Amino acid sequence: MAKKGDIEMVVVMDVNASESDIERVVGEVEAVGGQAFVSPGRMRTVIGLVGDTERFMELPLATLPHVDQVIRVGRPYKLVARELHTESSVVSVGGVPIGEGTFTIIAGPCAIETPEQAMEAGAMAVDMGAHILRGDAYKHRTSPYSFQGLAKRGLEILKDMSDRYGMPTVTEVLEPADVELVAEHADILRVGTRNMMNFPLLRECGRSGRAVMIKRGMSATIEEWLMAAEYVAREGTSDIILCERGIRTFETSYRNTLDVSAVPFVKELTHLPVIIDPSHSGGRRELVAPLARAAVAVGADAVMIDVHPNPQAALCDGPQALRREDITTLGEELFQIAAAVGKKPAIAARPADKASA
Amino acid sequence: MAKKGDIEMVVVMDVNASESDIERVVGEVEAVGGQAFVSPGRMRTVIGLVGDTERFMELPLATLPHVDQVIRVGRPYKLVARELHTESSVVSVGGVPIGEGTFTIIAGPCAIETPEQAMEAGAMAVDMGAHILRGDAYKHRTSPYSFQGLAKRGLEILKDMSDRYGMPTVTEVLEPADVELVAEHADILRVGTRNMMNFPLLRECGRSGRAVMIKRGMSATIEEWLMAAEYVAREGTSDIILCERGIRTFETSYRNTLDVSAVPFVKELTHLPVIIDPSHSGGRRELVAPLARAAVAVGADAVMIDVHPNPQAALCDGPQALRREDITTLGEELFQIAAAVGKKPAIAARPADKASA
Amino acid sequence: MAKKGDIEMVVVMDVNASESDIERVVGEVEAVGGQAFVSPGRMRTVIGLVGDTERFMELPLATLPHVDQVIRVGRPYKLVARELHTESSVVSVGGVPIGEGTFTIIAGPCAIETPEQAMEAGAMAVDMGAHILRGDAYKHRTSPYSFQGLAKRGLEILKDMSDRYGMPTVTEVLEPADVELVAEHADILRVGTRNMMNFPLLRECGRSGRAVMIKRGMSATIEEWLMAAEYVAREGTSDIILCERGIRTFETSYRNTLDVSAVPFVKELTHLPVIIDPSHSGGRRELVAPLARAAVAVGADAVMIDVHPNPQAALCDGPQALRREDITTLGEELFQIAAAVGKKPAIAARPADKASA
Amino acid sequence: MAKKGDIEMVVVMDVNASESDIERVVGEVEAVGGQAFVSPGRMRTVIGLVGDTERFMELPLATLPHVDQVIRVGRPYKLVARELHTESSVVSVGGVPIGEGTFTIIAGPCAIETPEQAMEAGAMAVDMGAHILRGDAYKHRTSPYSFQGLAKRGLEILKDMSDRYGMPTVTEVLEPADVELVAEHADILRVGTRNMMNFPLLRECGRSGRAVMIKRGMSATIEEWLMAAEYVAREGTSDIILCERGIRTFETSYRNTLDVSAVPFVKELTHLPVIIDPSHSGGRRELVAPLARAAVAVGADAVMIDVHPNPQAALCDGPQALRREDITTLGEELFQIAAAVGKKPAIAARPADKASA
User: Fold this and answer.
1) Burial of D18 (0-12, 13-18, 19+ CB in 10 A)
2) For an engineered disulfide with D321, which of A61, C81, C287, D306 has Cβ 3.0 to 4.6 Å away?
3) How many CB atoms lie within 10 A of CB A18?
4) Which phi and psi (to 5°) does residue C88 adopt?
5) A110 touches chain B (CB under 8 A)
6) Whole-prediction pTM value?
7) Do A48 and C41 touch (CB under 8 A)?
8) Is the predicted ipTM greater than 0.95, yes or no?
9) A10 has which bridge partners?
10) Residue A137 in 3-state DSSP?
């Protein structure tokens, strides 16, 4: 949170600004309890504002005569900012840490289709060394004619997976009305990329008592992503995980452009853990392993990977799901790269018999 | 809707595909009741699929051996497509048409702040020749610390505006739970750019009995935008208005890049009316009039413009609201350009005394 | 050009900056002859720099300890900036003005293919009321296997067109070595979108004695575009025309996204005329007329349109060229819209017999 | 190169196409010596074209009546395509391989400023285990007022660096007229991001007898990038290296968005080596090491890194150059990650005394 005495905004006057133009800016700022410090450029004057940014943001500064630019210097997010919370947060879910110093694998089916498919995918996740299971009961589909998920029945299967493999779970929630039910069945509520600015949903998740994973909107700036986290944090939850999953650019050869630079950059700005979803970013099986490796190397605290026992029959995103033959060595490779960048597995390897149970 | 016998998808095999690879594709297609027509390229074979696209989309065609590309040829939207509904739809709201042959002005305050501000802005709208009033009671703010709207009280003021000026209204709705209340107070429900893929909200709006305006998502492709309309149309409403409001690009000099090309292009694909919001696109007062002029010239069926009696005091988006002095000639100019492109005012000019009442 | 005493940059220190960190910044600035004005934020200090930006830009300010942001306040272009050259420039070519108060049509074939094709296209241009002819002899093709233009022979045909119709011409130049030859044959040298940052070419064009048209790079920011103009202006030419032709975005339904907002925005920053090429932006015939209308309405000083007597046989960009039947009313419509926005035709209509000569 | 009998394009007719519309397409194709195979969709017909794509591309297929879509199936690049050259190419420069199985470090100063600065930066490169030196004598600056490089004197210093450290070099070339001189002094000619579509320059580089490195244009699609390589390859050179350096997107927090997905994707399409420049992508020192690690992990054959003995005094891009303290462990980390993805150092470590010589 910005500290008292901090300069929050800078107003740059244009070359024709008069004394009275400058005084007008100062007056507006003082009228809402702020302080304005005028820098004595002979022609282009700069004014630094100290006080409450929220009030300043509602002032029509940019529209005052001879104001050239209004630059926000302070950052609009507070609770999630690293500035006054310099230690990195570790989110712990069912005994599994996500955050600094460790590397976590989240894996499972994109959508839960049947109990058998879910359990087999869960076994694959265990085999590749995963610590957390994924599996969606509500699907956010661009077409109203596509499979929309098993809803409550899917959540029950997810709970069974969790019990069977002794692992915490993450699943998507699509609307405020579903939050309570989802929170009864899963450990992490995931807000999808298309909902990153669905503020009523974010607020409801923040009140659920569960950890919240926020996927970056497909065209969200980093500041907007952090503001989404701020919406959740304001409800009292600090168990928030940011998930980069590719942004929309002019390049359409792959579904999205994975923005690996976001990981180290966002970590400078926030104390929250940052993870990567290589499956939904590339949209094609061949890209998942290379992108997962890049994710670990760039410093992501976890990767989240789709697996499916029979992707040919998947009801959703089959082309990107890893098969048994794709994962035999992947987990091991990821842990090796993690070691090279100073991260150890989130928890010790599970007994092999769990997976084959 | 795609007609029987239509080729819906094209599968392109790579140069190393064998007969059995081709047969495998054919088999998958036939297994879901489709037909596959194989084009006899000696090396790169092309297969045209006829049948139910939804089933084809769930097949893992792209992941079969030696499949190089899977190209969807049919279009995924049906009810909103022009293909089988060649006549342009005109949405009529409280006696005001929006659509082919006419040009409509929607104007009013961005947010409703007080009864006085709302009524004054309404008078400005009338003065510039507007046919429909805008005014929001729920605001979608990126920051949880910003003004969020007057909610129910705002809707009541909007209703008063409507009564006072005898004009229908449009207002934003933010979540499914609010749809009923909003529908009681306004004529057109607006789904904002950040909610364009909030499918539960779209569905609820489709059931409201009101016309629905869908703003294009800030990084939505045209197909995604039309699929959002399809979600609404499936609930039984055909009174849908598409609103272009700028897309997010690398150019950050203005808030968004108004995509005027979308207007003629989308009109080829759909029978729905398409309008433009020049105020939120540019984000700066100086850009509103030029962009509004371009909107009419490119063929938009309406423009939606923010006005404010005192933008310096606006609680939301003040910098883009037009002032009294900005609108003296704008309406007239827009009608002149509309005439040059073959569109006449949506309804005859209102008696001047209404505005000054 | 920035005036003496102007604040050129603002350095924002982070919350942990000490007195000595601030002094270090001041020291660096003073070491290159600048002045640093420190704004007394108690925690986050802001420093305004007065002096030579070029020197400041080469200082490693952003890398100094506890510097949070370095914001350039002055603008890097000088000769083309409106700041100290407030009157709009009108570029006059062979008696035809391009700039404030007038509206100019440039038309002709995309590529010059044969004398007959060129002359017929020229006649079409005259028929639609064009004032300047276009026609390229050198083509910039993405594929080395595509038609690359007639080179010198094409320039000669262009000259013949100019003589035949009594109109000045514009043509593209691809490399510095060709500038002299092209300048002997055409009135305006055009630097294409892929060459907007080909600085040796820009410089050579600036020395040619001809007017220079600079197309915006397909992902060029407005500042980069103006800096390209600055490269030309530094060579002594002030006859520079900026041409918006669509930018590259995530939307791939049309070749490019025409950025109409750039026209009014760029005109605030520069005194140079700004025009639009609706043909290359949309890439499809159906979009050319609507985009041309939007171009005039948004305030472009000219439009440049591809026409072809037989687009089916065009060697380059046939799909976007207008045919005889497309232009019968277009010129008239454009002049009508121009009138609505306060612009009159660049020169009085030509005698009809010229075209049919 | 596409093989005989290959389907190169697919034409999709719209639902209203008649027999004669289909015959017209067939006729156009046969008129240029191609074959057209018609797929019997009852309503939407698909036609596969076999023959010479270059000829087909010049046909106005998309403008024929009732043609809905024209889809290119074959790929326009041939010499650089993996399709008929399935083995990965390894470019060998002065005994250093760049390509499959090995991992190469390229390092050195962004710009060559003085002999002392260059030699010290070279020593840093050796210390971090680099195999190839970088250093530019010609700088491509957006502002005409910025440092433009030492030109010939810079090339001589580069040659001295090469001799002193016994390492091959890479340097940028800006215009065709400079190619010969640059080729006399350096082992790899680099075409910069702003010149990726400067076809005269690409051609000249292809004739130079030197290896050519092509940086991806900042908004170049992957196909355009490969077409740039095709321009070079057509001149007879197969020693071509592709360098990803970040693309321009809506996210402006860092200079560019490093597109790591491009590495595995491009390697499917071409046999050429693909490397990454993490320094110019991020533009900030803090991002260089994480991005370099991600580059190795995603499968890049080399990374190219800016180092500077005193970045505070750098004349170009100082903020991104690594300092002595930044590189102590970086080389070792990169080799460790390379090992985890199956790549070994390009050549055995150099004797330590070389660096301290």
Assistant:
1) exposed
2) D306
3) 11
4) -65, 135
5) no
6) 0.92
7) yes
8) no
9) A48, A71
10) coil
